[in-house]
């Protein structure tokens, strides 16, 4: 009897296109969340940087609109990943906006600080609201009223309940990472660079991760070079298999393309990861590179990582430029190549291990 009820419930969920799966929520939704960030907050950062360089007010104005739309873009992107029907999809914009902007005021070190949940709040609120919206979608004759009402009201209610806690949790986590990197730049330079770089290559969004915890300063710089090491590293060491198309696809696109090959031959992940471990502390201790939020998790994708460093360090000077050239591009390429040749000689990596179907 219990199995029959379970089967009926599963069929009902299937009919509503609801899949209760960690992969759907923490990989598919988070990956699409990165698109929402890219099309709003990240583009706003790039436009604002260009506007400050060119003194073109239109670019700065466009940046302010793009930044204001961040929460809405996140809600729609997450709803799209969850295959929401049209009314749920557009209603998710309001939910994402609420989740991104709600939070609470806390007294921290004797000073009142207004904290917002940011992308993490939008993520939680949108996922729950979208799934609830899908449950009622097209079940009544007044769907045009019921579906948006359920999606928006449930999403805002979840945001109001959860965002104060999420805001403080993300603040505490980001403060820990940023402060620890300032205090222990060598050790944390390695840890942040390697971890965020590996997240970039995994089917998870490193950009969303960096945005959610509010990574900044030296920690942001370490994250940036770690992501660059993965992308540049794989582009270089797989050149003999994938030639120029692979170089561009991985160097300016994403190292995630190698995930299938990594599953088959994990050793191919070692060269760019070891390169990240070397480049990370150089970023924190020698070049003092800084980056903020979503840009720190983008690497060389569209050169967003280096542009993020330029935006975070407008008065960086010659050392900053050298750091970007050496630590984000040249050193990852050289180190990954050398490590790759070493592992080829000892038989851990073979010809064809990194072949892509491009």
Describe the structure.
The protein is built from 15 helices and 2 strands. The protein is mainly alpha-helical. Strand 1 and strand 2 (111-116) form a beta hairpin. The radius of gyration is 22 Å and the shape is globular.
* Fraction of residues in H or I helices: over 70%
Structural class by helix and strand composition:
mainly alpha
Question: What Rg is obtained from the alpha carbons, in whole angstroms?
Answer: 22 Å
Kindly give the count of domains: 2
Summarize this structure as a short list of keywords or feature phrases:
about 350 residues, mainly alpha, 2 domains, two-stranded antiparallel sheet, 15 helices, about 75% helix
Short description:
The chain is mainly alpha-helical and 358 residues long. The protein has 15 helices and two strands. The N and C termini lie far apart (50 Å).
What are the SSEs and their pairings?
Elements: H1 2-15, H2 22-54, H3 57-68, H4 70-81, H5 86-101, E1 103-108, E2 111-116, H6 118-136, H7 143-183, H8 185-201, H9 206-213, H10 217-237, H11 239-253, H12 259-264, H13 270-286, H14 304-312, H15 317-345
Antiparallel strand pairs: 1-2
Helix pairs in contact: 2-3, 2-4, 2-14, 4-5, 4-6, 5-6, 5-7, 6-7, 7-8, 7-10, 8-9, 8-10, 8-13, 10-11, 10-13, 10-14, 10-15, 13-15
